[in-house]
Each structure stands twice: as C-alpha cells, then as structure tokens.
Write a structure and sequence with these properties.
mainly alpha; transmembrane; membrane; 4 helices; transmembrane helix
Length: about 140
C-alpha cells in the first residue's frame, strides 16, 4: 500500500511539473481538466497494467494524488514562518502511519491471544477454515 501511495505522490509531482510548464493556462482549467486526466490515467494504468503488483492498490494511489494536491494548495496559505509540508514529508508521514498501524495490529494480536488463551490473528491465514456458501432453496 505504501508503494501505491508513493505512486500517487509521483503522479501529483508529474502533474505539478506539467502545470508549471504551462503558465498561461487558467488555474480552474488546469485543476479541472488536468486532474481529471491524471485520474483517468491512474484508473487506466494501475488496475490494468499494475493490478497484481504492490503498485496496483488504486485507492492508495488516488489518496496519494489527492493528499499531495491538497498539501501543495494549502502551503501558500500558511503564515510566514509556519512549517510547510512538501511531497517528501508527505511520504514520511504516511510511512510512519503505516508503521504505527503494523505495530498496533501486532500488539493487538498478542493482547487478544493472551486474553483468549488461543492464537489470534487479525488477518486471515492460509490454513484458516473457509466457510462454504450457504445454499438457499
């Protein structure tokens, strides 16, 4: 998921490079048509070409794109001297969140296993029993 988020940040960086290369295009047109085109490209490339890779988690790619655009739009509105985020810091913050989630899930599994007295896994494993679909009729 982190790799997909990083791809979204990369798409936003590419969009910002193209936006800066076209200085005469109105902001509204660039944000409307440009972002729609980038989202179309993401929805075309990631599920089809990268669907079975770590870069194929489309919601994470879109999250990376939208959060990056939000950060770049909010940064000019900050007061002088306020710390501003850039795209690299956005990756660091998201990576920190992924790491903390991993730690919380591992700790939660250990605590639940200790309370229940059995092995507990938050995520299904390969040897977990699969319930057969119920036939109605």
């Amino acid at each position: 998921m982190f790799a997909s988020f990083a791809c979204g940040v990369g798409w936003a960086g590419l969009f910002l490079l193209v936006k800066d290369a076209l200085p005469g295009v109105p902001f509204e047109l660039m944000m409307g048509v440009g972002v729609a085109l980038v989202i179309f490209l993401i929805l075309s490339v990631h599920p089809i070409l990268l669907g079975r890779t770590p870069f194929g988690v489309v919601p994470a790619v879109l999250l990376g794109l939208i959060e990056s655009l939000l950060v770049t739009m909010v940064t000019p509105m900050l007061v002088d001297g306020a710390p501003g985020l850039n795209l690299l810091w956005l990756l660091v913050v998201f990576g920190y969140g992924c790491l903390m989630t991993l730690i919380l899930v591992a700790v939660q599994d250990r605590l639940i296993s200790a309370v229940l007295g059995t092995t507990w896994r938050s995520a299904p494993t390969e040897d977990a029993p699969i319930r057969a679909p119920r036939v109605v009729g």
